[in-house]
TrEMBL record:
<feature type="transmembrane region" description="Helical">
    <location>
        <begin position="396"/>
        <end position="417"/>
    </location>
</feature>
<feature type="transmembrane region" description="Helical">
    <location>
        <begin position="70"/>
        <end position="96"/>
    </location>
</feature>
<feature type="compositionally biased region" description="Basic and acidic residues">
    <location>
        <begin position="1"/>
        <end position="10"/>
    </location>
</feature>
<protein>
    <recommendedName>
        <fullName>Major facilitator superfamily (MFS) profile domain-containing protein</fullName>
    </recommendedName>
</protein>
<feature type="transmembrane region" description="Helical">
    <location>
        <begin position="108"/>
        <end position="127"/>
    </location>
</feature>
<dbReference type="Pfam" id="PF07690">
    <property type="entry name" value="MFS_1"/>
</dbReference>
<dbReference type="InterPro" id="IPR020846">
    <property type="entry name" value="MFS_dom"/>
</dbReference>
<comment type="similarity">
    <text>Belongs to the major facilitator superfamily. Monocarboxylate porter (TC 2.A.1.13) family.</text>
</comment>
<feature type="domain" description="Major facilitator superfamily (MFS) profile">
    <location>
        <begin position="67"/>
        <end position="450"/>
    </location>
</feature>
<feature type="transmembrane region" description="Helical">
    <location>
        <begin position="304"/>
        <end position="321"/>
    </location>
</feature>
<feature type="transmembrane region" description="Helical">
    <location>
        <begin position="139"/>
        <end position="158"/>
    </location>
</feature>
<feature type="transmembrane region" description="Helical">
    <location>
        <begin position="268"/>
        <end position="292"/>
    </location>
</feature>
<dbReference type="InterPro" id="IPR011701">
    <property type="entry name" value="MFS"/>
</dbReference>
<feature type="transmembrane region" description="Helical">
    <location>
        <begin position="195"/>
        <end position="215"/>
    </location>
</feature>
<feature type="transmembrane region" description="Helical">
    <location>
        <begin position="227"/>
        <end position="247"/>
    </location>
</feature>
<feature type="transmembrane region" description="Helical">
    <location>
        <begin position="359"/>
        <end position="384"/>
    </location>
</feature>
<feature type="transmembrane region" description="Helical">
    <location>
        <begin position="333"/>
        <end position="353"/>
    </location>
</feature>
Amino acid sequence: MSVVDIEKFSQKPPAGSFPSLDSDHECTRPPFLQHAPQPTSPARSISESGTLELLTCEHQYSDGGFKANLTVVGAFIALFCTFGLLNAFGTFQAWYTAHQLQHMSPSTISWIGSLQLWVFFFSGWPIGRVFDSYGPTRLMIAGTLCYLVSILATSFSVLYYQYVLSQGILFGLSVGLLFYPSLASISTHFLKYRATAIGIAIAGSGLGGVVHPIVLQHLFEAVGFGWGVRISGLAGFVGCVAATLTVKSAPSPTQRGPSSDLKILPDARFSLLAGGSCLVTLGLFIPFFYIVDYARHISVSEHMSFYVLAVLNAGGVLGRLAPATLSDTIGCFNLLAPSAFLCGLSCLILWIVTAKSLATLMLFASIYGFFSGAVISLVNPCVAQISHIRQIGTRIGMLYSVISFPSLLGGPAAGALLTRGHGSFDGLIIFSGSTIIAGSLLILVAKLLVDSRVFARV
């Protein structure tokens, strides 16, 4: 819709042409705009914001109901099986370092996990476009099949390149095919309680990150690596099938989003949110990759070191739920920037200074898990908040495609710092914490562009 077309909407219609705004047909302002000042010019307000208030009426959000709630359950299951296993890569990193790939450096092994993240994030843009046109089902069927093949291939892998192809690339793609359609579908059902619904779904990844390290460690010791991966993968495959059957998107306006995704880029709020997310992502997953190795570095037993990763992910479960629920009241951006800042600060204070024993490391893991979980759960509602209903899938996917590149570099960069420090984790920790804090500052600027009032509900 051009500015000229919008100006036509701004002209006062003849009496009786449309229902009165005082009637039962009133189209309410979205929650994030209820406290914003009224625009002086409808055309100017709409063209600059990118959040088309006049077009909000085109889509009716149920904010609940059987289909919407079942979609949240299905998304929870999908993320438990896929993103939860991705969060548990530290288990594989530690196992490969001690067994199959013990002749390789930690930095080289971490490329497997970094490729997972890169393929998962980068696939978001094309997957988002397909979702906006065709919905979630076809994508999730492809993701479920891809998940099964990747798990089986990983279980039979022996050489490094085989792990890169099966676990790094193929599994990362399966996560993307199940992750993005699930969360984008939730956004088509919920408006008022969107952050809460997405937070519940993303909590599945946190719970999966708690369960998978413990289960995999016991399976590896009981039946070996190959059968351990296959048993875990079969259970995950059943979950992916259930998720595919339950996740459905709400009917949306027939007109599709912009023909060119480049039209999104001039939106300064989206660009700053994406830039801040890039810096955050550069350091965010480093503890997930290296905290098990760090635990062993401070003489924690091999058995207990895997529980540290489980505690980190357990903190993420609460972090995905509590801030997301609270953000529906005080605003997504109001929580995203502080959560990212405190996440980075916990690395620079708790990890590098105090985490010298199992107890203090567990404390850091739980706190970092909480704030990192909040960051992960709040990004999607922030994107949806500044996007039109027809652009939600594309914009979420575009954001994740942009942050795929720093996610690819974060793990290997941390591994290189570990090698350069001759086994000292200080450089790795400082790099992780400082990049997250820098990203939180850009997100704060994006929040101020949405509403310049410091305490506004945004």
